[in-house]
Inverse folding.
C-alpha cells in the first residue's frame, strides 16, 4: 500500500480555503491575482485564512507576473514581504526566480530564503521555464527549507511534460532530486494513475477545483472528487 497522496489546492480567500479543506485538501497555496498566475496575498488574507482552517498553508512570494524578480528595489520589496508574512505567522512558502536568460536567479532566491529562516518552501513552476532543469536543481540542492518542486514537466503543462516528470521521479534520492515532486499545471485526473505508479505522491490543482472558472469559488465537491481518486491510488 502506498502512502496517502498530498492534495494542494490554490486558495484566494477564506471561502476558498474552507471549501478546499472540506473537500479533503491537505495543503493550500495562498495567492492573489490569478490573472498574473498568482501573486503574494496580503497579510490580512493570510491571517484570515489561518484562523479559518487548520491545514498547512504555503504562501506565494511573487510580486509581478513572470519569473523575473526585478531590480534591487523589487528584490527589497520581496524580502520585506517575506519578513512581514513571517511576523504574521506564515511558516511555509512558494517562490522561484529566473534571470533574463532563463537560468536560476540564485542571488535573489538566497536573499529571500534567508528571510524565511529555515521555513519549508516550494520552488514553483519557474523550473518549467529554464533551459536546464538539472542544473537548476543542483544549484538549489543545499538551500535550507527547500522540500518541493511544483512542476508540470513542461511550460505548456502536464500533457507535454509527463515524460519529464516520470524521468525525474525515477531519479528520486539522487543529488538535486531529494525534494518531493508536486505535479501541477494542466493536471487532469487521467494523468494521476501513471504518476502514482511512478512514485509521485503530491498533486496541485487550481482551475480543476473551480468548475465555475476563476471568477467562482473553490468547490468542495470538486476537491472531494480529486481526493477520492488519489485515495484509490493510495490503496493500490
Amino acid at each position: 500500500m502506498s502512502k496517502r497522496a498530498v492534495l494542494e489546492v490554490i486558495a484566494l480567500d477564506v471561502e476558498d480555503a474552507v471549501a478546499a479543506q472540506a473537500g479533503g485538501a491537505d495543503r493550500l497555496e495562498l495567492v492573489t491575482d490569478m490573472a498574473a498566475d498568482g501573486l503574494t496575498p496580503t497579510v490580512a488574507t493570510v491571517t484570515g485564512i489561518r484562523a479559518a482552517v487548520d491545514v498547512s498553508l504555503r504562501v506565494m512570494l511573487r510580486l509581478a507576473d513572470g519569473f523575473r524578480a526585478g531590480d534591487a528595489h523589487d528584490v527589497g520589496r520581496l524580502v520585506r514581504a517575506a519578513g512581514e508574512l513571517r511576523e504574521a505567522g506564515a511558516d511555509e512558502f512558494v517562490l522561484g526566480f529566473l534571470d533574463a536568460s532563463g537560468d536560476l536567479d540564485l542571488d535573489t532566491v538566497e536573499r529571500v530564503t534567508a528571510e524565511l529562516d529555515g521555513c519549508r518552501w516550494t520552488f514553483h513552476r519557474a523550473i518549467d521555464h529554464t533551459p536546464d532543469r538539472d542544473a537548476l536543481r543542483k544549484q538549489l540542492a543545499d538551500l535550507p527549507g527547500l522540500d518541493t518542486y511544483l512542476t508540470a514537466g513542461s511550460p505548456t503543462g502536464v500533457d507535454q511534460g509527463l515524460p519529464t516528470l516520470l524521468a525525474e521521479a525515477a531519479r528520486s534520492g539522487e543529488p538535486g532530486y531529494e525534494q518531493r515532486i508536486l505535479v501541477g499545471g494542466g493536471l487532469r485526473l487521467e494523468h494521476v494513475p501513471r504518476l502514482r505508479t511512478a512514485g509521485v505522491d503530491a498533486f496541485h490543482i487550481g482551475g480543476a477545483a473551480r468548475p465555475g472558472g476563476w471568477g467562482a469559488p473553490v468547490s468542495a465537491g470538486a476537491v472531494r472528487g480529486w481526493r477520492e481518486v488519489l485515495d484509490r491510488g493510495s490503496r493500490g
About this structure: The chain is about 40% helix and 15% strand.
